[in-house]
Automatic annotation (TrEMBL):
GO terms for biological process: inositol metabolic process; phosphatidylinositol phosphate biosynthetic process; signal transduction. Its cofactor is Mg(2+). It catalyses: a myo-inositol phosphate + H2O = myo-inositol + phosphate. It comes from Deferribacter autotrophicus. Belongs to the inositol monophosphatase superfamily. The keyword Hydrolase applies. Pfam families: Inositol_P. Keywords: Hydrolase, Magnesium, Metal-binding. The keyword Metal-binding applies. This is Inositol-1-monophosphatase. Signal peptide: none annotated. PANTHER family: INOSITOL MONOPHOSPHATASE, INOSITOL-1-MONOPHOSPHATASE-RELATED. Mg(2+) binds at E66, D82, I84, D85, D210.
């Protein structure tokens, strides 16, 4: 299965991307899962399209998708899907949106993150490296935190509840790095660490489908993905940190307020 599964998934994702591209910068019906947590009919349409196509994949895989998640997250033989990571960006016509799809099967895993607006498709699979539009990519070699560019995101549930803590963290990072970028898509933030654009990334309160594919891409590009304790990140962790490995120790110290 490993030889063909990523190409099979890639074809599905590219097809689904056409739905996003055709409806970008158009008036779409918006629903609210939370005060600022949006979902559109295009999210649902893309998810349904991909899930239908995935019915033909070999093996008994559990599909975990954002808009139809039932609360059950299997440990293995699972496909994690975010139909539009960056829905708010999509609604406002900001072209930082992506389909995020990851497959995990025992020791094999692969991830695909596709931005159909910018025509960027990131792919990675176990032990075979990470690629952008078919070209191999690697993390940056920046080893000085003061010269690093860091990405982050603001969790929907914490913007109001923990605003003081969020601002303090931002202040600490701003004072000790070259800058912070907040583009609104965790999947693409991770891929831009893999691409060497960002030297590091951190965020909290994310869901497995937000980061599953991007995590694979970062690791296969030579980076690492950790929790706030500096241990290997798992989906049960509240905090995620991705780096090029060179600034890990300093970024962890900064985020822990040391």
């Amino acid at each position: 299965m490993e030889k063909s599964v990523i190409n099979f998934l890639k074809e599905i994702v590219i097809e689904a991307g056409k739905i996003i591209k055709e409806n970008f910068n158009k008036s779409n019906t918006v629903h609210y899962k939370g005060k600022i947590d949006l979902v559109t009919e295009i999210d649902i349409k893309v998810e349904e399209f991909i899930k239908k196509r995935l019915e033909t994949i070999e093996g008994d895989f559990n599909i975990v998708a954002e808009e139809s998640f039932d609360g059950n997250l299997p440990d293995d033989k699972v496909i994690l899907l975010d139909p539009i990571d960056g829905t708010t960006n999509f609604v406002h016509g900001f072209p930082f949106v992506a389909i995020s799809l990851a497959l995990i099967d025992k020791d094999y895993e692969c991830g695909i993150v596709y931005n159909p607006i910018l025509d960027e498709i990131f792919t990675a699979e176990s032990g075979k490296g990470a690629y952008l539009n078919g070209e191999r990519i690697f993390v940056s070699k920046t080893d000085n935190l003061e010269k690093s560019l860091i990405a982050t995101g603001f969790p929907y549930s914490s913007v109001v509840e923990n605003i003081d803590k969020l601002l303090k963290l931002l202040s600490n990072v701003l004072k000790n790095t070259r800058g912070i970028r907040r583009a609104g898509s965790a999947a693409l933030d991770l891929c831009y660490v893999a691409k060497g654009v960002f030297d590091g990334y951190y965020e909290s309160n994310l869901k497995p489908w937000d980061v599953a594919a991007g995590k694979i891409v970062v690791k296969e590009a030579g980076g690492e993905v950790l929790n706030i304790e500096g241990e290997s990140y798992t989906f049960s962790d509240k905090f995620i940190i991705a780096t090029n490995k060179f600034i890990t120790k300093d970024l962890l110290r900064l985020l822990n307020g040391v």
